[in-house]
Amino acid sequence: MFTPRTNEVTDLHIRINADLPATRPHFEDGNPYIHYYSLSPNGVRGLFEARGEIFTVPTEHGDIRNITNSPGVFERYPTWSPDGSKIAFFSDESDEYKLVLQDQTGLEEPEVLSLGEPGFYSDPIWAPDGEKILYQDMNETIYFIELESGEITEVDQNNYLSHNTMPSWSHDSNWITYIKRLENGLRAVFVYNLEDGSIHQVTDGMSDAVSPVFSHDGKYLYFAASTNYALNNTFLDMSSYERPVRRTLYVVVLSDETENPFVPLSDEEEVEEEEEESEETSEEVEEDEDRVVIDFEGLDQRILSLSLPSAEYGNLQTSANHLFYIEFTLEDEMILHRYDISERESSVYMSGVGSYEISSNGTKLIYSANGQYGIVATDGSPSPGDGALSMSGMQVYVNPAQEWRQIYTDAWRLERDYFYDPGMHGLEWRTIYDKYLPFIEHVGHRSDLTFLIGEMIGELVVGHAYVGGGDEPDVESVNVGLLGADYTIHRNRYRFERIYSGLNWNPSLRAPLTEPGVDIEPGDYLIAVNGIELTADMNIYSLFQNLAEHRVVLTVNDHPNDNNARTVTVVPTSSESGLRFRAWVENNRRIVEEATDGRVAYVYMPNTAWAGYTSFNRYYFAQVDHDAVIVDERWNGGGSAADYIVDMLDRPLLNWWVTREGLPWVTPMASIFGPKVMIINESAGSGGDAMPAYFRRRGLGQIIGKRTWGGLVGISGSPTLMDNGYVTVPSFGIVNPDSEWEIENEGVSPDIEVEYDPVSVINGVDPQLQRSIEVILQELESNPPPVLDPPEFPRRAVRER
């Protein structure tokens, strides 16, 4: 405190003891935080990980059991041993993730096994003999660990990240099957032999093969494969959009001594034969029958189709007698099927299944459907809801202070283990952890933690490093009905200034005031809403609370009182953003159309994801009768790599086709052959950085506007945080054809820089669009599109004499 009269300064020592209710320990319902589930070997209990705790849930009798009870520790991916005695999972209780073997009751001291290098591990799978566990790490390297000795063996590593190698065991525990992405981008089925460490590729790599699984009797290996996978071999390129994958299911007859399961059937009379005495004991015979034998010579000729209709199939699993698989329909429904190879037929087991897992003994199955979990018999015919588990007792004890430290550490580990640059952009990453760790003691709310993690990962100086989610409060919202209009205040009334039109056949672009039967025009006054008078001193939107998508009676008039006023019934929409966005795009298209006498098309790309793909397809191909095109990608939100867009823009004329009647046409038909211009700005990024870079690299035309954002180290997914929060990890960076890093933290600069200055925009002028029109008209003068000069028809039937 400063006293002016005496020039005296006094320090005030103030301490605020806040309540900080978000720091209080409490119980949470575990159901919204379930990240992984499985079941016991006989299917009498479900097994769940919820908010870092491991629970077992009875099918009928007993209580839900928390076998870990470890607030502030993240236990991941629980799986039950084949003999039912133990549950394995990964836990970070000892600073880094290790494999833990816990008795099924949770009462005994757990056994902790180190997995070597620190990192994230997933998908532990017990070998049927109960002596080994198969798992993979964040680099998609597959391992198995011998539980008695702790010895770890590396099986194989995926060449290109696909987030799941889909490993599984043979039922004699001597073979592991999995998929691996080849250099051609397709995935192939492999098997690994534990006896000699040999690796064999089963499929030829000419199709995309997934989800391999052995039959319980060891005779067969099933998988799904597609020969039309084509451009789907990358998750990033837009050229993979709208290309449905069709797969067929296949079976590999592993031994050359096993009969063809699909040999043509013939009814024959059986003749009893005398059994010959065998010198082998019954134990030896049984052991030999259980052994999986794979004869690799001629194996490719023993791959057979199950003769099912082609569809998108996946998630193959086997019970004692059947093959289960999911069909993904075009309507996004998931149907679980069951196939009987002895009967050579498939049937629908259950519709509406989100995911499932079969017990190790093959008799039971746990499924999720519409947020519900259930356990049913594999030989039954259940419906969603059958065998439903009672989950109401799954309560997690949450100690926020302990959780926040774990979440902070997990966020740091995620960047350490998944970041594309192992050198962390030159940072000593442990030092960064230590730098921000003391602030954890002062976190009073999840939003504080989110801010702190954001500061930590911000040290990487990279785009796409985001943090969010978690235990933020649910704020109750009230919808507000909107009419799709602008208003002015005139004579103490709200007056309709502009009414936005839409596409009323499209539910997302419904314009309430342009629907049939609605008689309202610009200049009309809104006198009342549902009989409540509206005046200028009121907030117009206060009368539309909770009225979105409900019938509302408006009193309107062409003068500012209720004399001879009329009533109009409308149905307000919950959002005007689509209407206003479409109005902006259509206004730009009109400006370009009028300024160029209809010669130049205008196409806006809001992002390089589905909205941008849809917008490009709608606007570009509808205007291929134009001579040139302006592609506007300002404020582009990114998404995928826009190879599809530049491919469509870069389609030169190959030929004309001429007929006797009618106009000639061209190949390719859907292309604009004249000049092209792209508009960019500082708010276009990610895929919005890549698209103008590709545009320039292809030499398609000039780029106008301002330098883009500069964020092209992309993200591809990483494990979630305990409380359903997330951090993104930039996991792949862009390198140009000259083997140089590019664009990240730089952006793409325009050929012609034009400022989007506020004075022009406020006055209704878009200076970047205007300059683009000027440039493309100049381009049309100097580089017009090709025009057909029809030749005379040939006279091929006339011979010279």
Structure characterization notes:
The structure is a single chain. The protein is an alpha+beta fold. 15% of the residues lie in helices and 29% in strands. The protein has ten helices and 48 strands. Strands 33, 34, 35, 36, 37 and 38 form a six-stranded antiparallel beta sheet that branches. Strands 39-40-43-44-48 form a five-stranded parallel beta sheet, sandwiched between helices. It has a four-stranded antiparallel beta sheet with strand order 4-5-6-7, with no helix packed on it. A hairpin with a 2-residue loop joins strand 35 and strand 36 (532-533). Helix 2 runs parallel beside helix 4 (446-458) and helix 3 packs antiparallel against helix 4. The protein is globular. The N and C termini lie far apart (117 Å).
Distinctive features:
801 residues; five-stranded parallel β-sheet; 15% helix; single chain; 10 helices; six-stranded antiparallel β-sheet; globular; alpha+beta
